[in-house]
Design a protein that fits this description.
The complex is a heterodimer of chains A (211) and B (187). Chain A is mainly beta and 211 residues long. Chain A contains two helices and eight strands. Chain A folds into two domains: 29 residues; 180 residues, Porin, CATH 2.40.160. Chain B has one domain: Double Stranded RNA Binding Domain (2-Layer Sandwich), CATH 3.30.160.670. In chain B, strands 1, 2, 3, 4, 5, 6 and 7 form a seven-stranded mixed β-sheet that branches. In chain B, β2 and β3 form a beta hairpin. The chains are: A mainly beta (211), B alpha/beta (187).
Chain lengths: 211, 187
């Protein structure tokens, strides 16, 4: 008898919590959902620039999706990718015990990031400046080659990416679309090959669609 | 209209962001040079050298000997003379230099970026990625005394897509670089 009562209470509790969850889902109506596709120009900084490649990456791409949960605050997720590469006509490095290794060198590095996002918006006339931060992970892959000798290594690391940007809607109705410009600092301790912290500063030029 | 053009330009830039990589020929066909002195060896007290006129060649099908080419000998002696060394007979020289050539063929079969990372052994690369190439490593060894002595210094000059003696400009540059990155040989 006691077991039957316990089962009934448990079933009731589960039904009640399921109902509450459904009510929460039904009430999930963001004020606006915005998706941004961007071309990313990335500048390596710190050890990434000093010990691996110091050339600006013009090959990068990024996607963000944000939901404005409150008037001026949005939550979202973002991913992006950037390719860095450089060729050195001659690099000479110590090889231990007085040894030296030299040769022409080609290097590239790829970085993929996945970030959870929070942004705050400060509309000024037709443009919307914003600031925010992304926290997530960065996967890095480094490759270097001299003659037919190759070496590569990858790593996964925590990523913290503060950013500031500007949205400018040029078509507005029930939905809107426009340009998005942002500057982001990707802070991480990603280490691979000779790099001890693969950090970048990015300029992102993108298109957004919001509804 | 301006917005559409802008959007088109941005879409083109996004597409251009995706692509593969190409290692420049200057790197693939460049020479990697490794030099190593014997720790603690006293180069300062040795001033004369003997250059072995015979080269040992180790190839895929065995080893053989050949005469040291004049231009290779000239490159070596020029660098040593510039560092204050003097040539001497084998019996009286402080150190001896021997040249060896390791040459052969290697296969390349990069499975590609994604295949490497995912670890799929069945992930085949395109035919254009696979191939066979020749490569060679010239080794210079300095020993004291000249015959049967202790190894004092060595240099390995490695090249792909030929290697060996078939590209004198490449080998000459590498010999010069081997001595340039070994300043402890200078008097």
């Amino acid at each position: 008898m006691r077991t039957s009562i316990a089962r009934a209470v448990l079933a009731g509790a589960l039904l009640a919590s399921a109902g509450a969850a459904r009510a929460q889902l039904e009430s999930y109506k963001p004020k606006e959902t915005m998706s941004v596709a961007s071309w990313a120009v990335s500048v390596p900084v710190g050890s990434f620039s000093k010990d691996f490649v110091d050339r600006t990456s013009w090959r990068g791409i990024g996607f963000d999706t944000r939901s404005r949960m409150w008037d001026r605050i949005s939550l979202g997720v973002g991913i992006d990718y950037a390719r860095f590469e450089d060729t050195f006509s001659l690099v000479s490095v110590p090889a231990g015990n007085g040894g030296t290794l030299s040769g022409p060198l080609y290097r590239f590095a790829d970085q993929f990031t996945l970030r959870g996002l929070v942004h705050a918006y400060f509309p000024v006339g037709p443009v919307v400046p914003y600031g925010g931060v992304g926290i997530g992970a960065v996967w890095s892959y480094g490759y270097q080659q001299t003659s037919d000798y190759q070496r590569s290594q990858n790593s996964m690391a925590l990523l913290v990416a503060p950013e500031a940007g500007l949205s400018w809607p040029f078509a507005k109705g029930a939905s809107s679309t426009g340009l998005n410009l942002a500057v982001r600092w990707n802070w991480s301790q990603a280490s691979f090959l000779t790099v001890t912290n693969a950090q970048t500063v990015q300029v992102l030029l993108g298109l957004f669609a919001a509804y | 209209m301006r917005a559409r053009r802008l959007a088109g330009a941005l879409a083109a830039a996004l597409l251009a962001a995706c692509g593969s990589y190409t290692v420049p020929d200057s790197v693939i066909y460049g020479q990697a040079v490794y030099t190593q002195p014997a720790p603690g060896f006293d180069f300062a007290s040795r001033t004369t050298y003997w250059l072995d006129p015979t080269v040992t060649v180790v190839a895929d099908d065995g080893s053989s000997s050949q005469a040291l080419l004049d231009w290779v000998a000239n490159d070596i002696t020029t660098s040593l003379d510039a560092y204050g060394w003097s040539p001497a007979a084998v019996g009286s020289a402080d150190v001896g230099l021997e040249v060896m050539l390791f040459t052969g063929t290697s296969g390349t079969y990069p499975a590609g970026y994604w295949c490497n990372y995912s670890g799929y052994t069945s992930c085949l690369a395109g035919w254009s990625y696979a191939g066979v190439y020749s490569q060679g490593t010239v080794v210079l060894q300095m020993g004291a005394p000249p015959v049967g002595g202790q190894l004092a210094w060595m240099a390995a000059l490695h090249g792909a897509g030929g290697g060996g003696w078939n590209d004198p400009a490449r080998v000459s540059e590498a010999i010069g670089r081997a001595f340039a990155q070994s300043p402890y040989l200078a008097h």
